[in-house]
Amino acid sequence: MKILYIINPVSNGGRTKKIERFLQDWPYPEGTEIKIRETTRPGEGKEIARAEAANYDVICSVGGDGTLNEVASGLYEAKAGVLGIIPSG
Asked: What's the average model confidence in pLDDT over 4-8?
């Protein structure tokens, strides 16, 4: 399984960035590949999700409602992907 986490590092006053280490250290099942991408500007979450939808089994939004909206919109436009949500906004 391949998982892409799209993180908004400034969400929740910057506390969302702390989740990144937790995601890296999680005991995933053998064979699981993860990648973490941090957004740096508005709209980037949508761009990343749209571009990567076909390359991952799950694309997970990590942040607030704005991040979720961007990632979901990107997957919708790509007409592909499974959306995961870790709310931290």
From this structure: 96
